Amino acid sequence: MTTFAILLCLHLCAVIFWVGGMAIMHIAVRPSAVEMLEPPQRLPFMAVTLGRFFLGVTISIVVLLVTGAWMMHFMASVGRLPHSVEAMAGLGILMMAIFGHVRFAAFPKLRRAIAAKAWPEAGKQLGIIRQLVALNLTLGVVTVVIAIIGRTALV
Ligand code: HEM
């Protein structure tokens, strides 16, 4: 197995964790919590669940950046860097910036509101997080499509 193949495997594991995790959160976990739990149970449950997921996303982002930059460097050195890879890097950075806003702005506000038992404010912050996760999920799927079409276009 070449170094490039190992990097690509790690890159794809990180993509699967991040995009798949957002899909599970958005499609299954949050709607089920809304259906089953009242705000004083649901909002702390969602904060704990998101906190665990965000730790995994942070690790995935580090893996994506290291493996992505390494593969780009390799491709540039052999003179084969398609626009699809540049588009992926741009969209990837945008997704990371959106995640940074969720993790370091909205999520701390959610936790503070929960600690103060301010349920309407906590619900508002969770709503903001839900919208940004939906946006990142869409961008993630678009990025995967661009990456795969870009590679198969070369074959
Ligand atoms: C700054 C971030 C990123 C950089 C620099 C980067 C770079 C790269 C590079 C150089 C490749 C190899 C392309 C090839 O072998 O033709 C690749 C593959 C891939 N990347 Fe990224 N990437 C980044 C983020 C992302 C994100 C956020 C996603 C999806 C959410 C993603 C999805 C993929 C997929 C699906 C492939 C495999 C394409 C294939 O083999 O058909 N990447 N990436």
Automatic annotation (TrEMBL):
- Top-level taxon in the UniProt lineage: Bacteria
Q: Which Pfam families match?
A: CopD
Q: What is this protein called?
A: CopD family protein
- Write out the entry's keywords from A to Z: Membrane, Transmembrane, Transmembrane helix
Residues annotated as domain Copper resistance protein D? 49-148
Q: Which InterPro entries match?
A: Cu-R_CopD_dom (IPR008457)
Transmembrane regions: 6-29, 50-75, 87-107, 128-149
| Keyword RNA-binding attached | no
